Amino acid sequence: MDALCDHALFNFSVQDADLMDYIEAIQGLLVASPDTDEDQALVLNAINVVEEYILATPHTKATYSYLLPSVSLLKQELSYYVSVPSTLDGPVITDDEQGSMSSPSSIDRDIDTSMVIEEVPDKTPVIRCNVCWGEESFVNDCIVICDECDVAVHESCYSIPHVPESSWFCNFCDVQRVAPAETWEPVGECRACHLKGGALMPSHVPNTWVHMSCAIYLPELYFLHHNVVGLDALKPRRKLKCMFCKQPNKGACAQCAHPK
What we know:
The protein is mainly alpha-helical. The protein has helices spanning 17-31, 37-55, 58-64, 68-79, 95-100, 105-108, 171-176, 212-217, 235-238, and strands at residues 143-145, 152-154, 200-202, 209-211, 222-224, 227-229. Among the domains are: 2-81, no CATH class; 143-239, no CATH class. The protein has 9 helices and 6 strands; from the N terminus they run ααααααββαββαββα. The chain has a two-stranded antiparallel ribbon with strand order 1-2. Strands 3-4 form a two-stranded antiparallel ribbon. Helix 1 (17-31) packs antiparallel against helix 2 (37-55) and helix 2 (37-55) runs antiparallel to helix 4 (68-79). The protein is globular. GO terms for molecular function: zinc ion binding.
């Protein structure tokens, strides 16, 4: 359980104060080392609160969707620690009783065979691609998860030519693993939308990053030798007012091409 205290979810910088409080509440519960089923249920409930908060409005979903893969993985990893109580307790047999038994079959007669053990429902969390937000993983286009930051992406969505049999790291984490101390960053920031985390691609400016989804949806951006180019052309889009947060100059806005 102690390993969950250092989960990737707690390394993200979140501007929403309420959401940050909810995330810190999860970490606080984990630090307290929840040992009982009741304590672990509190942790699970706190994780669900974070997930529901992110999905509550289009704005929070668009802004903090990059957290959802880590939330889902934390929920899955927590399930490994939750003990399932047994619904069938066998009879307690003393040494004297064991010696007086004529055969092992006598034990079977004391068990109520009418008892039915209910199957525990599958509560595997949904893992979604951080680019297309799809949850279906295909044989020839599976969803892979970064072993460092837990970001999940389809092979095709993230332009992964080959998935290694060992550990796989997203572009940002792969660079940070060998980065010198003066350029190392715990979480990357997109130069287009200014949000942190998620499926990042390198830009043509050294040590800067752009979300793969931003590179896809913003027509000014394009790829050149695996780097995102065109950030300077986003200045007009940065002046647009987002219909969700109602604030300009926070990031480049995508705009529908159809006139009003």
